[in-house]
Design a protein that fits this description.
By secondary structure, the protein is mostly helical. Bound molecules: fe (ii) ion (2 copies). The site of one fe (ii) ion has 5 residues, from helix 11.
Length: about 400
């Protein structure tokens, strides 16, 4: 037995969480990435600022940009703005809130049983009765939707900042529709969690880290990259996965409506950043963004381990490392990762942040297989939903 295994379990679990954080520092490809993510990681992972039950203050350091002439400066964005106006909906009246949701009803499962591998859990020494299995899935879906909610809260703040900072007039008026969309998403996810599931989990430390980093960054294009491309791109994949998996009709309709909105947001990110990366950035600046995007992609792939569910269910019965093994191998989580990166990688290619220089790094983590798929400027929300329905 190594020294690590001889320590009491609680001490081991605390050490385990520190080791995970140290790994983030080791894996960072450049000093710029570490400078940008490091302080946020300290606040998120070490001090757990998102979990202290008090509001978070993010000092804003970006510059607002106003051209009083209201120039028509981007035809495609203007068209997207017109679509966004027509696509508005009222979360209060549009969705069938009278639907009776019973999270433990096996006839209308929120998640299919195969989402996690209960045999695997048994091999790790934990046997759950069928009723307990249902309850664990209820926790997992509550956790997922809570992270969606907190992501939407971040998106609401980031969309407002981006609307101020973006140097395009057509970008600003589109941005205003996004601010409204995100407010609606916060409203509907919160209402579903609160009224229908009766469960809201705190923000995951890694999600906090990413939001913290992009809220504080003074560079508007970093906010864009972080929110419109990384967080929103992954959210779009995650919403789609849950939309396909759940049998609960109210949740399905809610997710479908949110997907229609989100597709516009990612489209906005791709249009705006593609021009900016190609025309305005020096090669060194472009490389910094390229590295940053890769680090954040890894952070998102490797670190959404649902520790909040672990703490609720298994702390003291299972080590953090064993939980990580279990949740990483869960078929549902596997599906999430697949769909999320299928959405993200083509967008990074499209905006010019996947040059041959970084491709080997993506290859190594198995993400190059998504390289040639369609980017968000080629995929409307309607097409996405149709694709999901067909696969279903
Ligand atoms: Fe949203
Ligand atoms: Fe969004």
């Amino acid at each position: 037995m190594g020294v690590f295994e001889q320590l009491p379990r609680r001490v081991r679990d605390v050490l385990d969480s520190y080791l995970e954080m140290a790994e983030l520092g080791r894996q960072a490809r450049s000093g710029g990435v570490l400078r940008s993510l490091g302080p946020s990681a300290l606040r998120g992972l070490l001090f757990k600022r998102g979990k202290q039950g008090v509001p978070t203050h993010f000092p804003a350091s970006h510059e607002a940009f106003v051209d009083w002439g209201c120039p028509a400066d981007h035809a495609e964005l203007h068209e997207l703005y017109r679509r966004a106006k027509r696509g508005q909906w009222d979360g209060e009246t549009y969705l069938a809130w009278q639907t009776d949701v019973d999270p433990l009803n096996p006839e209308v499962p929120l998640l299919p049983e195969r989402f996690v591998d209960f045999d695997h859990l048994e091999r790790l020494g934990i046997q759950l009765e069928p009723e307990e299995q249902q309850k664990l899935l209820y926790s997992v879906v509550g956790w997922l939707l809570s992270q969606f909610l907190h992501g939407e809260q971040g998106a609401l703040m980031a969309a407002a900042q981006v609307t101020e900072a973006v140097p395009l007039f057509d970008g600003k008026i589109f941005g205003a529709t996004q601010v409204m969309d995100e407010a609606r998403h916060v409203e509907v996810f919160h209402r579903y969690l609160d009224d229908k599931l009766g469960k809201v989990y705190q923000i995951n430390d890694n999600l906090f880290t990413i939001i913290d980093a992009l809220m504080r960054d003074a560079r508007w294009d970093m906010k864009f990259l972080g929110m419109q491309i990384m967080v929103e791109g992954l959210a779009l994949g995650a919403f789609g996965t849950l939309y396909s998996l759940t049998k609960e009709p109210l949740l399905r309709e809610l997710l479908k409506m949110v997907i229609l909105d989100e597709a516009r947001h990612v489209h906005y990110g791709v249009l705006t950043l593609r021009d900016f990366v190609q025309n305005e950035l020096s090669e060194a600046e472009r490389q910094e963004r390229e590295d940053w995007a890769f680090e954040v992609a890894l952070l998102m792939r490797n670190r959404f381990m649902a520790y909040e569910v672990y703490e609720e269910w298994f702390e003291g019965r299972l080590s953090r490392a064993k939980w990580r093994e279990f949740i990483t191998a869960a078929p549902g989580m596997e599906e999430f990762r697949h769909v999320m990166f299928k959405r993200l990688v083509p967008n990074l290619r499209e905006i010019g942040l996947m040059s041959p220089r970084i491709q080997p790094a993506y290859e190594q983590v198995g993400m190059m297989r998504y390289f040639d798929l369609a980017a968000a400027d080629q995929l409307s929300g309607e097409q996405l939903v149709e694709e999901l329905d067909q696969a279903h």
